[in-house]
Specification:
Length: about 625
């Protein structure tokens, strides 16, 4: 039957139009497995059904699963590129290049279109009139930079609600770190002149900033405003210190560039981008593609590199120039430049780096890719060994490449919600996370709530089936989950219950409480226990903790619209005493979010690990905004 269907599809493709467009390939379950674009749809799609000897192993596997091909016509090839990228982002087909960490790196957003602009951490670049700078290596780096710029250039740090309702200046004005635009102590024009230095600094024009600040310091000294002059002197030294930490490529350039490099073998491929802003390297970024060999003679290097660029620049900052390690040809370079121009509104050059300066940048990207490849492969292989141990200890038929975990959460008697967290190849796949608002259950009933969640989840045949479902709980919760899966006709899905065992031991007359993770399997009396340092344990307990965190985050987001309770109430492990300490030291929750971890760690009762955890939980709502609520 499958063979006849395959031949039917192949015959159908012969009648495809010869226009540009996007083609969508589906499997027997009507699930999208690949999305591509083409200048000539008929020729491109027919190539998949030609002699398979010239295909890569991945393409041969793809072709074996094609049971339906649809297409969408576009007016131009540029439109085909844009449509392909948006469809891949939406459907995440199995056989397309998938950039799992495409939202992990933050930007600094300067709301320059506002009357009184301020600085924000942003996870996406939008066409909203703001200026975007980055990407940076971490959220902590962004918070530190924003805090430095706010203090140095007297930028308001209050949120818009506070700004619009304030009737008198806050403490930040009293200590000389703000000009109080909230109560009109400074005009819009003068405010923008004051904060212009921050914009120049972020654009890499630090020398202009230092020159302007030095002149202000000189005038302040002449007018005997020595405290003002001293603050300017300290700010100048801080700017110089940051400048010294940035690698200078071209001190006279104002051009923004990204240089792309890669390294890989049969185990995978790592693509590295080096970000140069105004002649200075501000950071690098890695994307690891497991199971993809860039050296395979059957892989078209130009095709996969262009596919990467097309997806990478959907949400990320688009520079003036993109330097490539491969010659993709003049036509493709021009086309890719037009695609990026359509997205950014600015002229973008995409070219093979042949000049010395461009070549040096690409060489830097290649060297970083080679260095980081070892780390990623080692991590990937460690995860693989952990998954193999899970398969062996749980008696699974297949390696659990996709694991799902569900958490039911009811906060202080409020409405019940649930979270679905997915790990793929042992790491979080956040694009597959889902949130559920329980609709059919009144009161607290975990069994009924789980029944609703699993029923709604497995109605979605377009989702890939998990090789393992993890339930937080012991034998009772496991038996309930098995009963539910049987009732909805999915008893073929392996399930395991995870619970902590609490024991007491007498050691030097002190009672010591310890915890041990236990895993309960259907039909087995005794639980499975892993060694405390086993990678398998890290994967399984990690997905349980992530599901719990994600459910609590959902509660917080729901209650933000109906409650004035502090966000600190939802930070796991933060008691009343520590909350009081934080709110005494910082004037608002927003200021806590902007703080550096070192500042929080210095407070009584805190340490560096706790500080980083607090900041991570309080700021991760930016990252979670795009996660779908399940219908």
């Amino acid at each position: 039957m499958a063979s006849s269907k395959f031949e039917e599809v192949r015959d159908k493709v012969r009648e495809f139009p010869t226009q540009s467009g996007v083609y969508i390939m589906k499997n027997l379950a009507d699930k999208i497995i690949y999305i591509g674009k083409a200048k000539n749809l008929r020729n491109r799609v027919r190539s998949y059904f030609s002699d398979s000897n010239g295909h890569s192993p991945k393409t041969r596997l793809l072709v074996q699963n094609i049971m339906e091909v649809e297409y969408i016509l576009t007016k131009t090839e540029v439109e085909a590129f844009l449509l392909e990228a948006s469809l891949i982002k939406k459907h995440r087909p199995k056989y397309n290049i998938r950039l799992r960490d495409d939202k992990a790196y933050p930007y600094i957003r300067f709301s320059w279109g506002d009357e009184y602009p301020r600085l924000y951490l942003a996870r996406k670049v939008k066409k909203d009139g703001s200026l975007y700078f980055g990407p940076y290596t971490s959220g902590f780096a962004v918070h530190g930079t924003i805090k430095f710029l706010n203090r140095t250039f007297k930028i308001r740090d209050c949120n818009d609600t506070m700004f619009n309702t304030r009737q008198r200046p806050c403490m930040t004005y009293q200590i000389g770190r703000c000009t109080a635009p909230c109560v009109s102590y400074i005009s819009q024009e003068d405010y923008k002149l004051e904060v212009e230095g921050a914009k120049l600094f972020l654009k890499g024009q630090s020398r202009k900033v230092i020159k302007a600040m030095t002149e202000k310091m000189r005038l302040a000294a002449e007018e005997e405003k020595f405290e003002v002059a001293a603050r300017l002197r300290d700010s100048i030294e801080a700017v110089k210190s940051i400048m010294q930490k940035q690698a200078v490529i071209n001190d006279t350039s104002e051009k923004d560039q990204d240089a792309v490099g890669f390294f890989g073998d049969e185990r995978g491929c790592l693509i590295e981008t080096v970000h140069v802003r105004a002649g200075r390297v501000i950071g690098t970024r890695s994307h690891y593609l497991p199971h993809f060999d860039p050296n395979d003679i059957n892989e078209d290097s130009r095709e996969w590199l262009v596919d990467f660029l097309n997806q990478y620049y959907v949400d990320n900052f688009i520079p003036d120039e993109v330097l490539l390690p491969l010659d993709i040809g003049q036509d493709l370079s021009k086309l890719m430049g037009e695609v990026l121009h359509e997205r950014s509104g600015n002229k973008v050059t995409v070219r093979f780096a042949t000049d010395e300066r461009g070549r040096n940048l690409v060489d830097m990207a290649n060297e970083n890719a080679k260095s980081h490849f070892v780390k990623y492969v080692s991590k990937s292989e460690e995860k693989r060994r952990g998954l193999e141990e899970i398969k062996e200890r749980f008696g699974l038929a297949d390696i659990p490449r996709r694991i799902e975990c569900y958490d039911i959460s009811t906060f202080q008697g409020a409405e019940t919600v649930a979270s679905q967290v997915v790990f793929e190849d042992g790491v979080p796949a956040k694009e597959h996370y889902r949130r559920y608002k329980i609709k059919t259950v009144t009161g607290i009933d975990d069994f009924a709530s789980m029944y609703e969640v699993l029923s709604r989840r497995f109605k979605h045949t377009e989702y890939e089936d998990p090789q393992l479902v993890v339930i937080d709980g012991g034998k009772g919760q496991l038996s309930q989950a098995m009963k539910i899966l049987k009732e909805i006709g999915r008893q073929d899905i392996p399930v395991v219950g995870l619970a902590k065992a609490r024991t007491e031991s007498d050691f030097q007359k002190a009672i010591v409480e310890s915890t041990e993770e236990r895993f309960f399997l259907p039909g087995r009396a005794n639980p499975v226990i892993f060694k405390h340092n086993a990678e398998a344990l890290y994967i399984l307990s990690g997905i349980r903790d992530e599901a719990h965190r994600f459910a609590i985050t959902y509660h917080r987001k729901l209650r933000e619209n109906t409650s004035l309770e502090s966000e600190l109430d939802y930070v796991i492990g933060l008691g009343e005493k520590r909350k009081k300490t934080l709110l005494t030291h910082f004037k608002s929750v927003d200021e806590i979010k902007m703080a550096a971890p070192e500042e929080i760690a210095q407070l009584k009762g805190f340490n560096r690990v706790l500080a980083e955890r607090i900041l991570l939980q309080m700021n991760e709502s930016d990252e979670d905004e795009t996660v779908a609520e399940e219908s």
